[in-house]
3-methyl-2-oxobutanoate hydroxymethyltransferase
Amino acid sequence: AKRITTHSLQEMKNTNEKISMLTAYDFSMAQILDAANIDVLLVGDSASNVMAGHETTLPITLDQMIYHASSVVRGVKRALVVVDIPFGSYQGNSRQALDSAIRIMKESGAHAVKMEGGAEIKESVMRVLSAGVPVMGHLGLTPQSIYKFGTYTVRAKEETEAAKLIEDAKILEECGCFAIVVEKIPSKLAEKVSKAISIPIIGIGAGGGVDGQVLVSHDLLGITKEFNPRFLRRYADLSDIMQKAVEEYIKDVKAESFPSKDESY
Ligand code: KIV
Ligand code: NA
């Protein structure tokens, strides 16, 4: 299969083909999602929650993100691999942003990075882009700033915050970002951004009027159970399937029916 590039995504927006994006943090999952022909795999800092069990995305380190990213890259033949630069590795310091982006690209073999924020991180975005590293933006609910927001509720519901979001999207487009994720904002606003901006807008909890959708794979597969926002559609209940399989195994071990003669040397 032909590799997806940042240019393929722009082509998809131009021809009205919706972009599919999911998270991946490891080799085995990346192989499955890539075989299904997912367009973009995001090595999200949601690994902090999903893989490590932290309450927020803040604790995950650059080294840990690089470990996840390199594992995903080895599992992918087609998808574009985008990696979150983690909290504390780019905000307020463009030199540090550049160093972090270069480490991710060199050490993991990923194809692009993602950073949260608009005007506040413009210098960092521009410096990373100047090194030839493609940057995906992320606006709306930006979990790395959760302690500033205080809650995970819908963002940009009122006029001034909505206006700032559109302004930030324009800034990121002008900087040269190849796409922007918008998280948990009213669908009317998301659609407006997608129309006002020429680069692809990829939504999570942002309605159907955008250029693509992203979800956390473990959520859509039902591996996680506790997280139940309105925007999440579960396509499977893997946690039940996995638990039942393990219960069967335990039963067989206890009953000495596993391993059988055929399963032994
Ligand atoms: O880390 C993540 O999973 C993300 C997506 C939800 C966009 O940033
Ligand atoms: Na993220």
Q: What stands out?
A: The domain at 6-234 is CATH 3.20.20.60 (TIM Barrel). Residues 23, 42, 44-46, 84, 181, 183, 204, 214, 216 surround 3-methyl-2-oxobutanoic acid (ligand 1) (CB under 6 Å).
